[in-house]
Amino acid sequence: QGPVVVAVAPRGKQIRPEEAARQLKKIARLIAAYIAVVQQNYSRAGNLYETLLSDFPTTRSEAVNFHFFAGLSHQFRWEVEKSRKELLETAKGHYEYVAKNCHDAPSTTLCASSRLNLGVLYLESGNMKDALRYNKDALAFAGEDRFPALNNIGAIYAQMNNFPEAEKTYREASLLRPNSVHVALLLGQVLKSQAKFSEAEAVYRRAIELAPKDHRPYFLLGECLINEGRRDEGLSYQRKAAQIAPDKVFLVTPGQRPPGQ
Known about the structure:
The chain is an all-alpha fold. Helix content is 71%, strand content 2%. The chain has helices at residues 17-38, 42-55, 60-80, 85-101, 109-124, 128-141, 147-159, 163-176, 181-193, 197-210, 215-227, 231-244, and strands at 7-8, 14-15. A hairpin with a 5-residue loop joins strand 1 (7-8) and strand 2.
């Protein structure tokens, strides 16, 4: 029969040649999937992760990882091919598996990330209720990094016109990232939507301190001041915004038409 070729398993046990070959094939497919992701070939990456799930026995922890990266590949592909709604649904299915089974994974990172991504996909589908639910669930697994979920939750509440809850959420997010201009602008907007103009003004002034070369807080502060009845002061800030970004801000004076009209 000839010599028997054996491979050494991690625990020092001998394994049969066919088992060694299967393990090598599995490793090769994992490497190919990783390379496909790096090359942004998400169609191939998704297919490879799905064959890893279908063609090889996997532990629960491995299955969680493979489902997550299969979901991520389909999500990235869907972001390029928006008309392919089936990609969105396939990504959801993979993430939902992770969300239900990630407790056996060595890290809770995938528990939070799968829920955050589900929240994004449900929001894209127009399902605010499930988008909000999954982002709130993500907070339980987020550890110290609660900001992404809070940012998403604030945006969902704002889209639902629930401005008091959006304000509460953005205020919590701003405590975690006190120097974030992004959060300051969002908080200012939901304050302005509640006619809390003096509070919005303070937030926009803080944003200008953080990013004096960003045209957005100047323009929004101007808008806020105009709403407060301080038109001349407001217009001066909007003119400043136009000076900083003339290609993005165009102030229309009486009798003047915007470019392209």
